[in-house]
Design brief:
73 residues
């Protein structure tokens, strides 16, 4: 007979999945904002499939985060 593995806590699995999703989403948003700044919003929108307004929002959020972190120093 094989020993059965204890069942993982389903809530813990959800929390880990949510954390992984949030980290992945943040990495995606950062990459898109970087691209928009480097090569232009239109190219970033086309490559990502996002609207120009969403690209603008990502860039604005990036700029606000940069000015906030600079002010905190």
């Amino acid at each position: 007979m094989t020993a059965t593995q204890p069942h993982p806590d389903p809530i813990d699995q959800v929390r880990r999945a949510v954390a992984a999703y949030q980290a992945s989403r943040q990495a995606r948003d950062d990459a898109i904002a970087d691209a928009a700044i480097a090569v232009g919003r239109e190219a970033a929108a086309e490559a990502s499939g996002l609207s120009m307004s969403r690209i603008q929002q990502l860039v604005t959020n990036r700029n606000q985060g940069a000015s906030t972190s600079t002010q905190a120093r």
